[in-house]
Write a structure and sequence with these properties.
The chain is α+β, with helices and mostly antiparallel strands. It folds into two domains: 157 residues, 2-Layer Sandwich (Beta-Lactamase); 82 residues, no CATH class. The chain has eight helices and five strands. Strand 3 and strand 4 form a beta hairpin. Helix 5 crosses helix 6 and helix 5 crosses helix 7. The termini are far apart. The relative contact order is 0.11.
């Protein structure tokens, strides 16, 4: 016996939680009427069947159903919690859903939903949600058509995926791993430019152009050549003429040099 929802409508069995792994295929295949409106942490919810995922590795995913004719919604507990409510605390409506969209995203999300209703397509979106506590969430909506017993499209059903934790992890990885490497590369290049400026009386732009020329000629990354040049320059000895001859040789043969030992720049470098 189906349960009754708001206003006496019969509802399908209770919506269940799905892990990000279970809906990833849907997001990769794509979905109709999708809109990406912005690029601005979490553990699996109860009922998540992806037991192989460690806590914190799975983004919260809630399921929804939306009927076109009467604009009726059903939300799983995860979607209620995303907005900051307990399940059933309010009547799930389009107005309530849109009220929790970031103001800059609201119109685009409303347009995407209206297009789904008009075209009997799937509702998809990437937008920001602001919950009742004022916390911002990055949300991806992936969905497909919902069909009745005759095969007619009667609505759209899919998932709200809270990407906030993944984006936060990605930013942390950039800050902890990628950014230090970029800073280190920049330091190597700046030091190498200094060596060339001193040796040849070049301007900073000319020194960089020289490094880039050698990188392109030898098919060796600019950062690698710069590090080799700095390491080789520390071993130069002799007067101005001897230094110039040695420097000419180094610049023209850097691609044959071994890479210097990696140094930890986080300690006084």
């Amino acid at each position: 016996m189906p349960a009754c929802g708001p206003e006496g409508h019969e509802t399908e069995p209770a919506l269940s939680t799905h892990s990000i792994a279970q809906v990833r295929v849907a997001s990769e295949v794509g979905f109709g009427n999708a809109v990406v409106v912005s690029d601005d942490e979490a553990v699996p919810g109860p009922g998540d069947e992806d037991a192989s995922a460690a806590p914190g590795d799975v983004d919260p995913v809630g399921r929804f159903r939306f009927w076109f004719d009467d604009q009726r919604w059903e939300w799983s507990a995860e979607i209620w919690h995303l907005f900051g409510y307990e399940p059933g605390e309010k009547v799930p409506t389009t107005e309530l859903m849109l009220s929790h969209n970031h103001p800059d995203d609201r119109a685009a999300v409303a347009d995407a939903l209206a297009a789904a209703v008009r075209d009997h397509g799937a509702f998809g979106s990437r937008h920001r949600v602001i919950d009742t506590a004022g916390v911002h969430h990055q949300v991806l909506v992936v969905a497909d058509g919902m069909f009745d017993a005759t095969g007619a499209v009667v609505g759209t059903e899919g998932y709200f995926i809270d990407l906030t934790a993944s984006l936060r992890r990605n930013r942390r990885e950039i800050l902890e791993e990628t950014l230090p490497e970029l800073v280190s590369a920049r330091a190597d290049i700046e030091q190498a430019k200094g060596v060339l400026i001193l040796a040849y009386g070049l301007t900073p732009d000319q020194a960089f152009a020289t490094l880039r020329w050698r990188s392109q000629e030898t098919n060796v990354k600019l950062r690698v050549l710069a590090a080799r040049l700095v390491a080789a320059a520390t071993a130069l000895r002799g007067g101005p003429t001897a230094l110039r001859i040695q420097m000419d040789h180094i610049v023209l043969s850097l691609h044959e040099y071994l890479d210097p030992p990696t140094q930890d720049r986080s300690h006084g470098q």
